[in-house]
Protein backbone atom coordinates (compact mmCIF):
# COMPACT_ATOMS: atom_id res chain seq x y z
CA UNK A 1 0.00 0.00 0.00
CA UNK A 2 1.31 3.48 0.80
CA UNK A 3 5.00 4.19 1.16
CA UNK A 4 6.90 6.00 3.91
CA UNK A 5 10.42 7.47 3.84
CA UNK A 6 12.12 9.54 6.52
CA UNK A 7 15.60 10.98 6.87
CA UNK A 8 17.63 12.30 9.80
CA UNK A 9 21.32 13.15 9.40
CA UNK A 10 23.60 15.89 8.12
CA UNK A 11 22.53 15.98 4.46
CA UNK A 12 19.62 17.83 2.88
CA UNK A 13 16.61 15.59 3.47
CA UNK A 14 14.65 16.72 0.39
CA UNK A 15 16.43 14.80 -2.40
CA UNK A 16 16.82 11.73 -0.20
CA UNK A 17 13.14 11.63 0.70
CA UNK A 18 12.09 12.29 -2.91
CA UNK A 19 14.38 9.60 -4.26
CA UNK A 20 13.05 7.16 -1.65
CA UNK A 21 9.46 8.02 -2.56
CA UNK A 22 10.17 7.29 -6.21
CA UNK A 23 11.44 3.85 -5.22
CA UNK A 24 8.24 3.27 -3.28
CA UNK A 25 5.88 4.76 -5.82
CA UNK A 26 4.78 1.30 -6.91
CA UNK A 27 3.19 0.88 -3.50
CA UNK A 28 0.78 3.77 -3.89
CA UNK A 29 0.68 6.65 -6.27
CA UNK A 30 -2.46 8.71 -6.08
CA UNK A 31 -0.91 11.55 -4.09
CA UNK A 32 2.29 12.31 -2.23
CA UNK A 33 3.69 14.75 0.29
CA UNK A 34 6.65 15.69 2.46
CA UNK A 35 7.17 17.35 5.84
CA UNK A 36 10.46 19.15 6.41
CA UNK A 37 11.51 20.16 9.86
CA UNK A 38 13.58 23.26 10.55
CA UNK A 39 14.17 24.96 13.89
CA UNK A 40 11.31 27.37 13.26
CA UNK A 41 8.64 25.28 11.69
CA UNK A 42 7.38 22.27 9.85
CA UNK A 43 6.90 22.83 6.12
CA UNK A 44 4.44 20.50 4.43
CA UNK A 45 4.13 20.21 0.65
CA UNK A 46 1.60 17.84 -0.96
CA UNK A 47 0.47 17.12 -4.48
CA UNK A 48 -2.16 14.93 -6.09
CA UNK A 49 -0.73 12.51 -8.64
CA UNK A 50 2.70 10.97 -8.91
CA UNK A 51 6.00 11.93 -7.26
CA UNK A 52 7.03 14.02 -10.29
CA UNK A 53 4.28 16.50 -9.42
CA UNK A 54 5.60 16.73 -5.89
CA UNK A 55 9.15 17.09 -7.16
CA UNK A 56 8.12 20.03 -9.36
CA UNK A 57 6.38 21.68 -6.42
CA UNK A 58 9.49 21.29 -4.28
CA UNK A 59 11.70 22.82 -6.95
CA UNK A 60 10.09 26.18 -6.39
CA UNK A 61 11.96 26.53 -3.10
CA UNK A 62 11.82 24.69 0.17
CA UNK A 63 13.92 25.14 3.27
CA UNK A 64 17.01 22.95 3.47
CA UNK A 65 16.21 20.58 6.28
CA UNK A 66 18.32 17.78 7.71
CA UNK A 67 15.26 15.98 8.97
CA UNK A 68 12.20 15.21 6.90
CA UNK A 69 9.78 12.56 5.80
CA UNK A 70 7.52 11.77 2.89
CA UNK A 71 4.61 9.57 1.92
CA UNK A 72 3.08 8.21 -1.26
CA UNK A 73 -0.58 7.35 -0.83
CA UNK A 74 -3.02 4.67 -1.94
CA UNK A 75 -6.34 6.05 -0.77
CA UNK A 76 -8.48 4.11 1.70
CA UNK A 77 -10.44 6.79 3.58
CA UNK A 78 -11.15 9.89 1.55
CA UNK A 79 -10.48 10.59 -2.10
CA UNK A 80 -6.98 11.29 -3.42
CA UNK A 81 -6.82 15.07 -2.96
CA UNK A 82 -4.34 17.38 -1.24
CA UNK A 83 -6.07 17.61 2.15
CA UNK A 84 -6.19 13.82 2.35
CA UNK A 85 -2.57 13.35 1.25
CA UNK A 86 -0.02 12.77 4.01
CA UNK A 87 1.76 14.16 6.05
CA UNK A 88 -1.00 15.27 8.40
CA UNK A 89 -0.50 18.02 10.97
CA UNK A 90 -1.92 18.57 14.43
CA UNK A 91 -3.99 21.71 15.09
CA UNK A 92 -0.97 23.92 15.77
CA UNK A 93 1.25 22.65 12.99
CA UNK A 94 3.82 21.42 15.51
CA UNK A 95 3.57 17.70 14.83
CA UNK A 96 3.53 15.94 11.46
CA UNK A 97 2.73 12.31 10.81
CA UNK A 98 2.71 9.85 7.93
CA UNK A 99 0.87 6.56 8.19
CA UNK A 100 0.43 3.28 6.33
CA UNK A 101 -2.44 1.04 7.36
CA UNK A 102 -6.00 1.53 8.54
CA UNK A 103 -7.30 2.83 11.87
CA UNK A 104 -10.49 0.89 12.52
CA UNK A 105 -11.81 2.91 15.47
CA UNK A 106 -11.10 6.27 13.88
CA UNK A 107 -14.74 7.37 13.78
CA UNK A 108 -15.13 7.10 17.57
CA UNK A 109 -11.79 8.78 18.19
CA UNK A 110 -12.57 11.55 15.72
CA UNK A 111 -15.89 12.32 17.42
CA UNK A 112 -14.14 12.59 20.76
CA UNK A 113 -11.34 14.77 19.41
CA UNK A 114 -13.80 17.05 17.59
CA UNK A 115 -15.77 17.43 20.82
CA UNK A 116 -12.65 18.54 22.61
CA UNK A 117 -12.01 21.19 19.96
CA UNK A 118 -9.57 19.64 17.50
CA UNK A 119 -9.79 20.86 13.94
CA UNK A 120 -9.69 18.20 11.25
CA UNK A 121 -8.57 19.09 7.76
CA UNK A 122 -8.97 15.73 6.01
CA UNK A 123 -11.36 12.81 5.71
CA UNK A 124 -8.65 10.29 6.51
CA UNK A 125 -8.55 7.82 9.35
CA UNK A 126 -4.89 8.79 9.78
CA UNK A 127 -5.53 12.29 11.01
CA UNK A 128 -6.91 11.08 14.34
CA UNK A 129 -3.46 9.77 15.28
CA UNK A 130 -1.77 13.14 14.96
CA UNK A 131 -4.49 14.86 17.02
CA UNK A 132 -4.22 12.14 19.66
CA UNK A 133 -0.46 12.71 19.82
CA UNK A 134 -1.18 16.43 20.18
CA UNK A 135 -3.51 15.67 23.11
CA UNK A 136 -0.79 13.83 24.92
CA UNK A 137 2.06 16.10 23.93
CA UNK A 138 1.27 18.66 26.56
CA UNK A 139 3.44 19.94 29.36
CA UNK A 140 6.57 17.87 29.79
CA UNK A 141 5.53 14.80 27.85
CA UNK A 142 8.11 13.87 25.22
CA UNK A 143 7.11 13.19 21.64
CA UNK A 144 8.05 9.56 22.22
CA UNK A 145 5.65 9.22 25.13
CA UNK A 146 2.90 11.11 23.36
CA UNK A 147 3.19 8.75 20.35
CA UNK A 148 3.21 5.77 22.68
CA UNK A 149 0.07 6.90 24.49
CA UNK A 150 -1.72 7.79 21.28
CA UNK A 151 -0.99 4.42 19.72
CA UNK A 152 -2.38 2.52 22.67
CA UNK A 153 -5.73 4.14 21.87
CA UNK A 154 -5.92 3.20 18.22
CA UNK A 155 -7.19 -0.11 16.88
CA UNK A 156 -6.02 -1.22 13.49
CA UNK A 157 -2.82 -1.41 11.54
CA UNK A 158 -0.09 1.14 11.24
CA UNK A 159 3.41 1.95 10.27
CA UNK A 160 3.93 5.58 11.33
CA UNK A 161 6.66 8.19 11.31
CA UNK A 162 6.30 11.37 13.34
CA UNK A 163 8.29 14.59 13.67
CA UNK A 164 7.75 17.43 16.10
CA UNK A 165 8.89 21.08 15.99
CA UNK A 166 9.87 21.11 19.67
CA UNK A 167 12.16 18.09 19.27
CA UNK A 168 13.83 18.82 15.96
CA UNK A 169 16.52 16.17 16.11
CA UNK A 170 14.41 13.02 15.89
CA UNK A 171 11.93 10.89 14.02
CA UNK A 172 9.67 8.60 16.00
CA UNK A 173 8.49 5.48 14.19
CA UNK A 174 6.21 2.63 15.22
CA UNK A 175 4.76 -0.47 13.69
CA UNK A 176 1.74 -2.66 13.99
CA UNK A 177 0.97 -4.67 10.90
CA UNK A 178 2.66 -2.36 8.41
CA UNK A 179 6.41 -2.64 7.90
CA UNK A 180 9.01 -0.15 9.09
CA UNK A 181 12.70 -0.63 8.32
CA UNK A 182 15.50 1.61 9.59
CA UNK A 183 18.62 1.97 7.45
CA UNK A 184 21.75 2.65 9.47
CA UNK A 185 24.17 5.01 7.70
CA UNK A 186 27.23 6.94 8.75
CA UNK A 187 25.88 9.68 11.00
CA UNK A 188 22.43 9.33 9.44
CA UNK A 189 19.38 7.10 9.41
CA UNK A 190 16.79 6.47 6.74
CA UNK A 191 13.47 5.00 7.78
CA UNK A 192 11.17 3.46 5.21
CA UNK A 193 8.28 1.11 4.77
CA UNK A 194 10.34 -0.89 2.29
CA UNK A 195 14.07 -1.52 2.07
CA UNK A 196 14.14 -0.49 -1.60
CA UNK A 197 14.02 3.15 -0.42
CA UNK A 198 17.07 2.56 1.77
CA UNK A 199 19.48 0.48 -0.30
CA UNK A 200 20.93 3.44 -2.25
CA UNK A 201 22.33 4.76 1.05
CA UNK A 202 23.19 1.78 3.19
CA UNK A 203 22.90 -2.00 3.29
CA UNK A 204 22.62 -2.11 7.06
CA UNK A 205 19.04 -2.29 8.15
CA UNK A 206 16.94 -3.22 11.14
CA UNK A 207 13.25 -4.05 11.11
CA UNK A 208 10.64 -3.17 13.71
CA UNK A 209 8.28 -5.92 14.83
CA UNK A 210 4.60 -5.38 15.59
CA UNK A 211 4.15 -3.49 18.85
CA UNK A 212 7.57 -1.84 18.66
CA UNK A 213 8.60 1.77 18.25
CA UNK A 214 11.90 3.57 17.81
CA UNK A 215 13.32 7.02 18.42
CA UNK A 216 15.69 7.74 15.57
CA UNK A 217 18.29 10.55 15.59
CA UNK A 218 21.27 11.12 13.29
CA UNK A 219 23.46 8.84 15.34
CA UNK A 220 21.21 6.65 17.43
CA UNK A 221 18.24 4.30 17.25
CA UNK A 222 16.52 3.43 20.49
CA UNK A 223 13.88 0.71 20.21
CA UNK A 224 11.25 -0.18 22.79
CA UNK A 225 7.92 -1.89 22.88
CA UNK A 226 4.80 0.23 23.13
CA UNK A 227 4.86 -0.77 26.81
CA UNK A 228 8.29 0.91 27.14
CA UNK A 229 10.35 -2.26 27.44
CA UNK A 230 13.73 -1.78 25.71
CA UNK A 231 14.33 -4.08 22.72
CA UNK A 232 17.74 -4.96 21.37
CA UNK A 233 17.77 -4.97 17.59
CA UNK A 234 20.14 -6.77 15.29
CA UNK A 235 21.35 -5.12 12.16
CA UNK A 236 20.76 -7.16 9.04
CA UNK A 237 22.60 -6.91 5.76
CA UNK A 238 20.43 -6.15 2.70
CA UNK A 239 21.08 -8.44 -0.22
CA UNK A 240 19.18 -6.20 -2.61
CA UNK A 241 21.10 -4.54 -5.46
CA UNK A 242 20.29 -1.12 -6.78
CA UNK A 243 20.10 -2.43 -10.34
CA UNK A 244 17.41 -4.86 -9.18
CA UNK A 245 15.13 -1.94 -8.55
CA UNK A 246 15.96 0.05 -11.68
CA UNK A 247 14.35 -0.31 -15.09
CA UNK A 248 17.56 -0.36 -17.14
CA UNK A 249 16.91 -0.54 -20.89
CA UNK A 250 13.26 -1.56 -20.48
CA UNK A 251 10.37 0.81 -20.99
CA UNK A 252 8.49 -0.54 -18.00
CA UNK A 253 9.27 -2.58 -14.89
CA UNK A 254 6.65 -5.09 -15.95
CA UNK A 255 8.44 -5.77 -19.25
CA UNK A 256 11.78 -6.02 -17.45
CA UNK A 257 10.30 -8.49 -14.99
CA UNK A 258 8.69 -10.59 -17.74
CA UNK A 259 12.09 -10.82 -19.40
CA UNK A 260 13.84 -11.71 -16.17
CA UNK A 261 11.90 -14.94 -15.90
CA UNK A 262 14.51 -17.33 -17.33
CA UNK A 263 16.88 -16.08 -14.65
CA UNK A 264 14.36 -15.88 -11.81
CA UNK A 265 13.13 -19.43 -12.47
CA UNK A 266 16.77 -20.55 -12.41
CA UNK A 267 17.26 -18.70 -9.14
CA UNK A 268 14.24 -20.42 -7.60
CA UNK A 269 15.91 -23.79 -8.32
CA UNK A 270 19.52 -22.82 -7.65
CA UNK A 271 21.20 -25.15 -5.15
CA UNK A 272 17.97 -27.00 -4.49
CA UNK A 273 18.16 -29.90 -6.95
CA UNK A 274 20.24 -32.79 -5.68
CA UNK A 275 22.06 -34.86 -8.25
CA UNK A 276 22.59 -37.79 -8.52
CA UNK A 277 20.17 -38.38 -5.64
CA UNK A 278 17.35 -37.06 -7.89
CA UNK A 279 15.90 -35.24 -4.93
CA UNK A 280 15.11 -31.69 -3.82
CA UNK A 281 16.53 -29.99 -0.76
CA UNK A 282 14.69 -27.03 0.69
CA UNK A 283 16.58 -25.71 3.70
CA UNK A 284 13.62 -23.82 5.15
CA UNK A 285 11.52 -27.00 5.32
CA UNK A 286 14.11 -29.41 6.71
CA UNK A 287 13.07 -28.91 10.33
CA UNK A 288 9.38 -29.51 9.54
CA UNK A 289 9.88 -32.43 7.17
CA UNK A 290 8.29 -34.85 9.61
CA UNK A 291 5.11 -32.75 9.76
CA UNK A 292 5.13 -32.50 5.97
CA UNK A 293 5.37 -36.22 5.56
CA UNK A 294 2.73 -36.99 8.13
CA UNK A 295 0.31 -34.33 6.88
CA UNK A 296 -2.99 -35.61 5.56
CA UNK A 297 -3.90 -32.34 4.03
CA UNK A 298 -2.18 -29.27 2.64
CA UNK A 299 -3.92 -25.91 2.47
CA UNK A 300 -2.63 -23.15 0.24
CA UNK A 301 -3.63 -19.58 1.06
CA UNK A 302 -3.09 -16.45 -0.98
CA UNK A 303 -4.62 -13.47 -2.74
CA UNK A 304 -4.57 -12.30 -6.35
CA UNK A 305 -1.85 -13.84 -8.46
CA UNK A 306 -0.53 -15.78 -5.48
CA UNK A 307 -3.93 -17.45 -5.19
CA UNK A 308 -3.66 -18.48 -8.83
CA UNK A 309 -0.25 -20.00 -8.11
CA UNK A 310 -1.87 -21.88 -5.24
CA UNK A 311 -4.46 -23.36 -7.63
CA UNK A 312 -1.66 -24.77 -9.78
CA UNK A 313 0.02 -26.01 -6.58
CA UNK A 314 -3.07 -28.05 -5.81
CA UNK A 315 -2.70 -29.92 -9.12
CA UNK A 316 1.03 -30.45 -8.62
CA UNK A 317 0.70 -31.82 -5.13
CA UNK A 318 -2.28 -34.07 -5.80
CA UNK A 319 -1.18 -35.37 -9.18
CA UNK A 320 2.53 -35.88 -8.57
CA UNK A 321 2.91 -36.41 -4.83
CA UNK A 322 -0.54 -37.91 -4.25
CA UNK A 323 -1.41 -35.74 -1.24
CA UNK A 324 -4.65 -33.94 -0.68
CA UNK A 325 -4.44 -30.20 -1.22
CA UNK A 326 -6.95 -27.38 -0.89
CA UNK A 327 -6.79 -23.76 -1.91
CA UNK A 328 -8.49 -20.86 -0.23
CA UNK A 329 -8.61 -17.13 -0.60
CA UNK A 330 -6.83 -15.90 2.52
CA UNK A 331 -9.55 -13.31 3.09
CA UNK A 332 -12.28 -15.96 3.13
CA UNK A 333 -10.36 -18.48 5.18
CA UNK A 334 -9.67 -16.10 8.05
CA UNK A 335 -13.30 -15.20 8.64
CA UNK A 336 -14.94 -18.53 8.19
CA UNK A 337 -13.93 -20.26 11.39
CA UNK A 338 -11.97 -22.81 9.36
CA UNK A 339 -11.66 -26.42 10.41
CA UNK A 340 -7.92 -26.61 10.54
CA UNK A 341 -5.50 -27.76 13.18
CA UNK A 342 -2.76 -30.13 14.19
CA UNK A 343 -1.73 -32.40 11.36
CA UNK A 344 -2.60 -29.85 8.68
CA UNK A 345 0.11 -28.04 6.78
CA UNK A 346 -0.74 -24.55 5.63
CA UNK A 347 1.31 -22.66 3.05
CA UNK A 348 0.75 -18.91 2.81
CA UNK A 349 1.83 -17.82 -0.66
CA UNK A 350 2.75 -14.17 -0.98
CA UNK A 351 5.12 -12.20 -3.15
CA UNK A 352 5.40 -9.31 -0.71
CA UNK A 353 5.05 -11.32 2.48
CA UNK A 354 2.98 -8.42 3.80
CA UNK A 355 -0.54 -8.91 2.40
CA UNK A 356 -2.81 -8.27 5.38
CA UNK A 357 -5.33 -11.01 4.63
CA UNK A 358 -2.68 -13.64 3.92
CA UNK A 359 -0.81 -12.77 7.08
CA UNK A 360 -3.97 -12.91 9.17
CA UNK A 361 -4.94 -16.27 7.64
CA UNK A 362 -1.48 -17.65 8.41
CA UNK A 363 -1.80 -16.48 12.01
CA UNK A 364 -5.25 -18.04 12.25
CA UNK A 365 -3.96 -21.40 11.01
CA UNK A 366 -0.97 -21.22 13.33
CA UNK A 367 -3.08 -20.40 16.36
CA UNK A 368 -5.20 -23.48 15.64
CA UNK A 369 -2.17 -25.73 15.69
CA UNK A 370 -1.44 -26.21 11.99
CA UNK A 371 2.12 -26.14 10.71
CA UNK A 372 2.15 -22.68 9.17
CA UNK A 373 4.63 -22.17 6.35
CA UNK A 374 5.37 -19.48 3.80
CA UNK A 375 6.25 -19.30 0.12
CA UNK A 376 7.48 -15.74 -0.03
CA UNK A 377 9.59 -13.47 -2.20
CA UNK A 378 10.57 -10.58 0.07
CA UNK A 379 13.26 -11.75 2.44
CA UNK A 380 12.60 -10.79 6.05
CA UNK A 381 8.96 -9.83 5.36
CA UNK A 382 6.37 -10.40 8.06
CA UNK A 383 5.00 -13.66 6.66
CA UNK A 384 8.55 -14.95 6.27
CA UNK A 385 9.30 -14.07 9.88
CA UNK A 386 6.08 -15.33 11.40
CA UNK A 387 5.81 -18.67 9.65
CA UNK A 388 7.18 -21.89 11.13
CA UNK A 389 9.35 -22.34 8.08
CA UNK A 390 9.09 -21.98 4.33
CA UNK A 391 10.73 -21.39 1.01
CA UNK A 392 11.89 -18.14 -0.52
CA UNK A 393 11.22 -17.87 -4.24
CA UNK A 394 14.25 -15.57 -4.80
CA UNK A 395 12.67 -13.67 -7.70
CA UNK A 396 14.26 -10.36 -6.64
CA UNK A 397 12.25 -7.17 -6.16
CA UNK A 398 9.06 -7.06 -8.21
CA UNK A 399 8.13 -3.45 -8.85
CA UNK A 400 5.46 -3.68 -11.57
CA UNK A 401 2.12 -3.81 -9.81
CA UNK A 402 0.94 -6.66 -12.03
CA UNK A 403 2.81 -9.70 -10.75
CA UNK A 404 4.70 -11.68 -13.40
CA UNK A 405 8.04 -13.15 -12.40
CA UNK A 406 6.83 -13.84 -8.86
CA UNK A 407 4.08 -16.06 -10.31
CA UNK A 408 6.42 -18.28 -12.33
CA UNK A 409 8.84 -18.49 -9.40
CA UNK A 410 6.01 -19.44 -7.07
CA UNK A 411 5.07 -22.22 -9.49
CA UNK A 412 8.68 -23.36 -9.65
CA UNK A 413 8.92 -23.53 -5.87
CA UNK A 414 5.58 -25.36 -5.67
CA UNK A 415 6.98 -27.88 -8.14
CA UNK A 416 10.09 -28.28 -5.98
CA UNK A 417 8.05 -28.82 -2.82
CA UNK A 418 5.98 -31.38 -4.72
CA UNK A 419 9.09 -33.26 -5.88
CA UNK A 420 10.54 -33.30 -2.41
CA UNK A 421 7.32 -34.76 -1.02
CA UNK A 422 6.92 -37.17 -3.91
CA UNK A 423 10.42 -38.53 -3.37
CA UNK A 424 9.89 -38.91 0.36
CA UNK A 425 6.58 -40.64 -0.26
CA UNK A 426 8.17 -43.20 -2.50
CA UNK A 427 7.50 -41.97 -6.06
CA UNK A 428 9.99 -43.77 -8.32
CA UNK A 429 13.42 -42.19 -8.66
CA UNK A 430 13.31 -42.58 -12.45
CA UNK A 431 10.10 -40.65 -12.75
CA UNK A 432 11.44 -37.87 -10.55
CA UNK A 433 14.66 -37.77 -12.47
CA UNK A 434 12.71 -37.09 -15.66
CA UNK A 435 10.67 -34.39 -13.96
CA UNK A 436 13.72 -32.71 -12.51
CA UNK A 437 15.27 -32.56 -15.98
CA UNK A 438 12.07 -31.05 -17.32
CA UNK A 439 12.24 -28.42 -14.59
CA UNK A 440 15.85 -27.63 -15.35
CA UNK A 441 15.01 -27.12 -19.02
CA UNK A 442 12.29 -24.57 -18.27
CA UNK A 443 14.46 -21.40 -18.21
CA UNK A 444 15.65 -22.06 -21.76
CA UNK A 445 12.13 -22.75 -22.91
CA UNK A 446 10.96 -19.50 -21.33
CA UNK A 447 13.66 -17.73 -23.35
CA UNK A 448 12.12 -19.24 -26.49
CA UNK A 449 8.63 -18.07 -25.55
CA UNK A 450 9.92 -14.54 -24.95
CA UNK A 451 11.04 -14.38 -28.58
CA UNK A 452 7.36 -14.15 -29.50
CA UNK A 453 7.08 -10.72 -27.88
CA UNK A 454 7.10 -8.76 -31.17
CA UNK A 455 4.49 -11.03 -32.71
CA UNK A 456 2.32 -10.68 -29.67
CA UNK A 457 2.66 -6.90 -29.96
CA UNK A 458 1.12 -7.23 -33.43
CA UNK A 459 -1.78 -9.26 -32.05
CA UNK A 460 -2.21 -6.71 -29.27
CA UNK A 461 -2.49 -3.91 -31.81
CA UNK A 462 -5.34 -5.79 -33.49
CA UNK A 463 -7.25 -6.43 -30.26
CA UNK A 464 -6.50 -3.27 -28.31
CA UNK A 465 -10.01 -1.88 -28.75
CA UNK A 466 -11.83 -4.98 -27.57
CA UNK A 467 -14.18 -4.43 -24.65
CA UNK A 468 -14.16 -7.97 -23.29
CA UNK A 469 -11.87 -10.96 -23.36
CA UNK A 470 -12.51 -14.56 -22.43
CA UNK A 471 -9.65 -16.85 -21.33
CA UNK A 472 -10.15 -20.61 -21.33
CA UNK A 473 -8.04 -23.46 -19.99
CA UNK A 474 -8.51 -26.86 -18.44
CA UNK A 475 -6.77 -28.68 -15.61
CA UNK A 476 -3.68 -26.90 -14.35
CA UNK A 477 -4.13 -24.40 -17.20
CA UNK A 478 -7.44 -23.20 -15.82
CA UNK A 479 -5.57 -21.10 -13.20
CA UNK A 480 -3.42 -19.84 -16.09
CA UNK A 481 -6.61 -18.64 -17.81
CA UNK A 482 -7.54 -16.84 -14.59
CA UNK A 483 -4.09 -15.28 -14.38
CA UNK A 484 -4.15 -14.19 -18.04
CA UNK A 485 -7.51 -12.50 -17.52
CA UNK A 486 -6.32 -10.86 -14.31
CA UNK A 487 -3.21 -9.46 -16.01
CA UNK A 488 -5.33 -7.96 -18.79
CA UNK A 489 -7.90 -6.31 -16.55
CA UNK A 490 -5.29 -5.02 -14.10
CA UNK A 491 -3.27 -3.03 -16.59
CA UNK A 492 -5.46 -2.42 -19.66
CA UNK A 493 -8.86 -2.00 -17.90
CA UNK A 494 -10.49 -4.34 -20.43
CA UNK A 495 -13.01 -6.62 -18.80
CA UNK A 496 -11.71 -10.16 -18.92
CA UNK A 497 -12.83 -13.46 -17.49
CA UNK A 498 -10.96 -16.69 -16.99
CA UNK A 499 -13.05 -19.84 -17.19
CA UNK A 500 -12.54 -23.61 -17.16
CA UNK A 501 -12.97 -24.35 -20.87
CA UNK A 502 -15.68 -26.95 -20.31
CA UNK A 503 -17.71 -24.56 -18.17
CA UNK A 504 -17.96 -22.07 -21.02
CA UNK A 505 -21.13 -23.72 -22.27
CA UNK A 506 -22.81 -23.07 -18.93
CA UNK A 507 -22.74 -19.32 -19.33
CA UNK A 508 -20.01 -17.37 -21.09
CA UNK A 509 -20.87 -18.97 -24.43
CA UNK A 510 -23.82 -16.59 -24.51
CA UNK A 511 -21.33 -13.73 -24.89
CA UNK A 512 -19.47 -15.15 -27.86
CA UNK A 513 -19.90 -13.42 -31.20
CA UNK A 514 -17.61 -12.01 -33.86
CA UNK A 515 -16.44 -9.29 -31.46
CA UNK A 516 -15.33 -11.55 -28.63
CA UNK A 517 -11.62 -12.42 -28.38
CA UNK A 518 -11.18 -15.83 -26.80
CA UNK A 519 -7.75 -16.90 -25.61
CA UNK A 520 -7.45 -20.67 -25.25
CA UNK A 521 -4.56 -22.52 -23.63
CA UNK A 522 -4.34 -25.75 -25.56
CA UNK A 523 -1.14 -27.73 -24.92
CA UNK A 524 -0.86 -31.28 -26.28
CA UNK A 525 -1.69 -33.05 -23.05
CA UNK A 526 -4.15 -35.71 -21.98
CA UNK A 527 -7.13 -33.36 -22.31
CA UNK A 528 -6.07 -31.75 -25.58
CA UNK A 529 -8.93 -33.25 -27.57
CA UNK A 530 -11.44 -31.90 -25.07
CA UNK A 531 -9.97 -28.43 -25.39
CA UNK A 532 -10.14 -28.68 -29.17
CA UNK A 533 -13.87 -29.42 -28.84
CA UNK A 534 -14.25 -26.23 -26.82
CA UNK A 535 -12.31 -24.35 -29.50
CA UNK A 536 -14.77 -25.67 -32.09
CA UNK A 537 -17.65 -24.38 -29.99
CA UNK A 538 -16.09 -20.91 -30.03
CA UNK A 539 -15.45 -21.13 -33.79
CA UNK A 540 -19.04 -22.10 -34.45
CA UNK A 541 -20.09 -18.80 -32.85
CA UNK A 542 -17.44 -16.78 -34.71
CA UNK A 543 -15.42 -15.92 -31.61
CA UNK A 544 -11.96 -14.53 -32.42
CA UNK A 545 -9.51 -17.15 -31.27
CA UNK A 546 -6.00 -16.67 -29.96
CA UNK A 547 -4.58 -20.08 -29.09
CA UNK A 548 -1.54 -20.95 -26.99
CA UNK A 549 -0.32 -24.24 -28.44
CA UNK A 550 2.75 -26.43 -28.58
CA UNK A 551 5.35 -25.95 -31.30
CA UNK A 552 4.71 -29.33 -32.88
CA UNK A 553 0.94 -28.99 -33.06
CA UNK A 554 0.42 -28.26 -36.75
CA UNK A 555 -3.28 -29.13 -36.89
CA UNK A 556 -4.29 -26.33 -34.56
CA UNK A 557 -3.20 -23.66 -37.03
CA UNK A 558 -6.38 -24.37 -39.04
CA UNK A 559 -8.58 -23.53 -36.10
CA UNK A 560 -7.53 -20.04 -35.15
CA UNK A 561 -6.75 -16.57 -36.36
CA UNK A 562 -3.67 -16.51 -34.13
CA UNK A 563 -1.58 -19.28 -32.64
CA UNK A 564 1.22 -18.48 -30.20
CA UNK A 565 3.70 -21.32 -29.84
CA UNK A 566 5.27 -22.59 -26.64
CA UNK A 567 7.69 -25.52 -26.31
CA UNK A 568 6.45 -28.77 -24.86
CA UNK A 569 7.09 -29.67 -21.26
CA UNK A 570 5.68 -32.02 -18.65
CA UNK A 571 1.95 -31.22 -18.37
CA UNK A 572 1.84 -29.88 -14.82
CA UNK A 573 4.84 -27.61 -15.47
CA UNK A 574 3.08 -26.22 -18.55
CA UNK A 575 1.57 -23.26 -16.66
CA UNK A 576 5.07 -21.82 -16.21
CA UNK A 577 5.43 -21.52 -20.00
CA UNK A 578 1.82 -20.93 -20.97
CA UNK A 579 1.38 -17.87 -18.79
CA UNK A 580 4.21 -15.97 -20.46
CA UNK A 581 2.42 -15.17 -23.77
CA UNK A 582 -0.54 -14.03 -21.66
CA UNK A 583 1.66 -11.67 -19.64
CA UNK A 584 3.06 -10.27 -22.89
CA UNK A 585 -0.38 -9.96 -24.47
CA UNK A 586 -1.69 -7.99 -21.50
CA UNK A 587 1.44 -5.84 -21.46
CA UNK A 588 1.34 -4.96 -25.17
CA UNK A 589 -2.40 -4.29 -25.14
CA UNK A 590 -1.99 -1.95 -22.16
CA UNK A 591 0.88 -0.11 -23.87
CA UNK A 592 -1.13 0.13 -27.10
CA UNK A 593 -4.00 1.68 -25.14
CA UNK A 594 -1.64 4.19 -23.55
CA UNK A 595 -2.21 2.86 -20.03
CA UNK A 596 0.21 3.35 -17.16
CA UNK A 597 1.46 -0.22 -17.07
CA UNK A 598 3.54 -0.12 -13.91
CA UNK A 599 1.06 1.90 -11.90
CA UNK A 600 -2.44 0.86 -12.92
CA UNK A 601 -5.25 2.91 -11.48
CA UNK A 602 -6.66 1.95 -8.09
CA UNK A 603 -4.26 -0.94 -7.55
CA UNK A 604 -1.37 -1.31 -5.15
CA UNK A 605 1.56 -3.68 -5.09
CA UNK A 606 1.31 -4.72 -1.52
CA UNK A 607 -2.12 -4.70 0.05
CA UNK A 608 -1.57 -4.17 3.75
CA UNK A 609 -5.20 -3.34 4.49
CA UNK A 610 -8.02 -5.85 4.70
C1 LIG B 1 -2.08 -7.16 -4.92
C2 LIG B 1 -1.16 -7.11 -6.11
C3 LIG B 1 -1.18 -8.45 -6.84
C4 LIG B 1 -0.84 -9.58 -5.89
C5 LIG B 1 -1.74 -9.57 -4.65
C6 LIG B 1 -1.22 -10.51 -3.59
O1 LIG B 1 -3.40 -7.24 -5.35
O2 LIG B 1 -1.54 -6.06 -6.99
O3 LIG B 1 -0.26 -8.42 -7.90
O4 LIG B 1 -0.96 -10.79 -6.55
O5 LIG B 1 -1.76 -8.27 -4.07
O6 LIG B 1 0.03 -10.04 -3.14
P1 LIG B 1 1.13 -10.91 -2.46
O7 LIG B 1 2.26 -9.94 -2.19
O8 LIG B 1 0.55 -11.45 -1.20
O9 LIG B 1 1.53 -11.98 -3.40
Please, could you describe this protein's structure?
- Helix content is 35%, strand content 22%.
- It is built from 18 helices and 26 strands.
- The protein is globular, with a radius of gyration of 25 Å.
- The mean pLDDT is 94.
- The protein binds 6-O-phosphono-alpha-D-glucopyranose.
**Which cofactors or ions or other ligands sit in this model?**
6-O-phosphono-alpha-D-glucopyranose
Distance between the termini: 11 Å
| Percent of residues in beta strands | 15-25%
How many beta-strand elements? 26
The SS-based structural class is alpha/beta
- Average pLDDT, rounded to a whole number, is 94
Shape: globular
Poorly predicted ranges: none
Level of helix content?
25-40%
Amino acid sequence: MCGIVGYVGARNAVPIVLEGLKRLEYRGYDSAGVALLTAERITVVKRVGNIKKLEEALRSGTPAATIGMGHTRWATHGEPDEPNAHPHLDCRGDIALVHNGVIENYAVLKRRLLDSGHIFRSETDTEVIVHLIEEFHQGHTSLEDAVRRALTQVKGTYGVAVVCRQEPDKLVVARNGSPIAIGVGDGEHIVASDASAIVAHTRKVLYLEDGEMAVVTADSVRTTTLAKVPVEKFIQELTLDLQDIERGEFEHFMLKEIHEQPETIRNAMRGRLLRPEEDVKLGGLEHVKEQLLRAKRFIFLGCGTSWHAALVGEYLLEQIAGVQAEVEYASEFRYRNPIVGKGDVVFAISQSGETADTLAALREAKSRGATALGIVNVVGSTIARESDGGVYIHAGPEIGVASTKAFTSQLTVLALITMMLARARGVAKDKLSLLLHELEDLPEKVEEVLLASDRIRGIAEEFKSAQNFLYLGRGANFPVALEGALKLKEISYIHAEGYPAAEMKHGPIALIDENMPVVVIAPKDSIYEKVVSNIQEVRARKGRLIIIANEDDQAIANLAEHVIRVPRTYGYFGPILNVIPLQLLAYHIAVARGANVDQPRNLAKSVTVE
